[in-house]
Amino acid sequence: MGPSAVKAVFWDLDDTVLDTLSGRADALTATYEEIIGERPDARELWRMHLGVTIEALAKELTGNDWPRFVERYRAIYYASKEPLEPYPGVVETLEALSSDGLDMAIVTSKISWGARGELERAGLLDYFAAVVGWDDCARPKPAPDPLLVAMERTGQKEPAQIAYVGDVPTDVQAARAAGCRAIGASWGSLDPERLRAAEPDLLAEHPSAVLAYVRRSRRPIA
């Protein structure tokens, strides 16, 4: 295994590991109607604001009333008891990477306690050595800060030996800024063409492509 081998895989959460769009859209619709008084196209709002925190979205929608919007959104969203489903192939890929001895972490624009709770509900938390949310660092993605925090928490020293998997251009930008490899998760992306245009090192149509990429990098050098 040479110096170019991937030794850790960091993952975004929403639209990459877990299919949370329906719940997020429902919570955004209910909050928007309650506070703004209109019914939005919630899925389009998420598509237009790919990768942003709910705080950033609320500030754009409501200005100074954003704390109330965020509080209400989270109350509605996290009260949901709907099952949380990983995308097809995610569990198998996580299991294989774990068996191969790779460290893994979640790096998300969600608040960390919310992300950790969702992973626990989905039965996936034990796969990850760290869960890093926007509240764990000074700047969210596309800044490199969340990835650097994940590196520190997982004991990784070489960013070039880390692959970061995410569904939006800001994930690719954060990986580049941190010196990590960028893998685009087109299987869950709301805008695959924008993801492609960000030029990740790999545009994966299925989680199994992540496993194949990592294993190729770890083959012994002849």
Helix/strand layout:
Layout: E1 8-11, H1 21-35, H2 42-48, H3 54-62, H4 66-79, H5 90-99, E2 103-107, H6 112-121, E3 130-132, H7 145-154, E4 162-166, H8 169-178, E5 181-185, H9 192-197, E6 202-204, H10 207-217
Parallel strand pairs: 1-2, 1-4, 2-3, 4-5, 5-6
Attribute tags:
alpha/beta, Rossmann fold, 11% strand
How would you summarize this macromolecular structure in one to three sentences?
Helices cover 46% and strands 11% of the residues. By secondary structure, it is of the alpha/beta class.
End-to-end gap: 10 Å
Largest sheet geometry = 6 strands, parallel
CATH architecture of the largest domain: 3-Layer(aba) Sandwich
Radius of gyration: 17 Å
Which superfamily, in CATH terms, is the homologous superfamily of the largest domain?
HAD superfamily/HAD-like
Please report the total strand number as a whole number: 6
**Overall pLDDT level:** 93
The structural class is alpha/beta
Q: What portion of residues belong to β-strands?
A: 5-15%
Uncertain residue segments: none
Helix content: 40-55%
Main-sheet strand order equals: 3-2-1-4-5-6
Along the chain, the helix and strand elements come as EHHHHHEHEHEHEHEH
Shape: globular
